[in-house]
Amino acid sequence: MNFALRTFITPLGAALALLCSPTAWAQPAAWPNKPIRVIVPYPAGGNSDAIARYVAEKLGRAVGQSMVVENKGGAGATIGAELAARAPGDGYTLLIAPTAVFAITPHLRRVNYQPFTDFVPIAQLSGSYSIATASKDAPFNDINGLIAAARQAPGKLTFGSAGPATATHLAGEMVKNKAGIDMLHIPYKGSAEALGDLMGGRIDMMYDPVSLVQVKAGKVKAIAVMSKTRHPDLPNIPTIREQGLDIDTRSWFGLFAPKGTPQPIADRLAAETQKIMATDETHQLLLKMSQYPEFVGPAAFAKQIQDDSAFFKALIARANIHVD
Question: What are the Cα distances from residue 84, in Å, to 57, 164, 259, 280?
């Protein structure tokens, strides 16, 4: 009897001891142990998509795990942003998005995400040489020519954008406001679609860095650079300030994660991103998209987003800009 009891208790006791041991419980798996999705809130083909695919491929190699880009365009990029905001903060969802998603759109329309509390800013990736571009057959070649043509036919000239409330939309509204002209805004689901219609002559203008390749190919024409300095690939195209319109455009692409993402993961991603953005390969690739590497780390990037949001909020109110 005692022997039997002992033979019964011994395995049971051993099992209980094992269960109570701290090492018995499954420890959190090292990150990352499965593919990471990278949400792009625009369709494939634009700068957001190209930058995201490049950064995702490089980051995936750096952390030893594949990264899968998902294009979730629509509603001025708010669909993709909301999807990222609602994802678990476990390090397996990232968002690559431009200025508008965080600093412009929330001041123009209702969005189902909180730009300052639903995300962890990881890094600014790049800045932008935005280009004011006209269709090849447009009857003007510079900003003054555009202004004259718009005044002759109020509301007839059109400009396309990557979507309502995007930086490409707001740039066009700033030109309208500063020049005192009336143009019709045509929103698209992304820059690639707008550029296609610009090349086809179905719209007259767009304000977007994505047009650089087609400008260099002679399929559309640049009439101004929307940055403080001339574009290094378009040295003969004056800035919009040189042409008399004092316009300040702030445009960047950034890397974000949902709230709750562990800080060590965010820090690791930021450190690897900094290395990627510092390479000559990255510089050359971004220049083709009229971008330039401009890494800003998590804390400084978070503050910059706050500052840019305040800037655009005041600008939108001052210019009385609305989204239909």
Answer: 19, 20, 10, 30
Tokens 């700068």 belong to which residue?
47
Extract the tokens encoding 31: 């990150």
Q: List Cβ<8 Å contacts ≥24 apart for 301-304.
A: 301/121, 301/122, 301/123, 301/124, 301/254, 302/121, 304/124
Name the nearest CA neighbour of 294 among 126, 64, 151: 126
- Average of per-residue pLDDT across 73-100: 94
Tens-digit pLDDT profile for residues 7-65:
444 444 444 444 444 433 333 469 999 999 999 999 888 888 999 999 999 999 999 99
Structure tokens at 164: 């309502």
User: How far is 89 from 85, CA to CA, in rounded Å?
Assistant: 9
**Helices and strands (DSSP H and E) totals, the chain:** 11, 11
pLDDT at residue 271 tops 80? yes
| Phi-psi region at 68: left, alpha or beta (left = phi > 0; alpha = psi -120 to 50) | beta
**H-run or E-run covering 144:** helix 143-152
The answer to whether the predicted template modeling score (pTM) of the entire model surpasses 0.90 is: no
- The helix (run of H) or strand (run of E) holding residue 126 is strand 119-128
Cα torsion 86, 88, 90, 93 to 10°: value is -50
The three-class DSSP label of residue 133 is: strand
Taking residues 134-150, report their average pLDDT. Answer: 96
Tell me which residue of 130, 65, 67, 61 sits closest to 95, measured CA to CA: 67
Q: How many CB atoms lie within 10 A of CB 148?
A: 14
Using one digit for the tens of pLDDT, what is the confidence trace for 272-306? 999 999 999 999 999 888 889 999 999 999 999 99
Distance CA 292, CA 295 (A): 10
Average pLDDT, the chain: 89
Residue bearing tokens 């003007």: 140
CA–CA dist 266, 91 (Å, integer)? 8
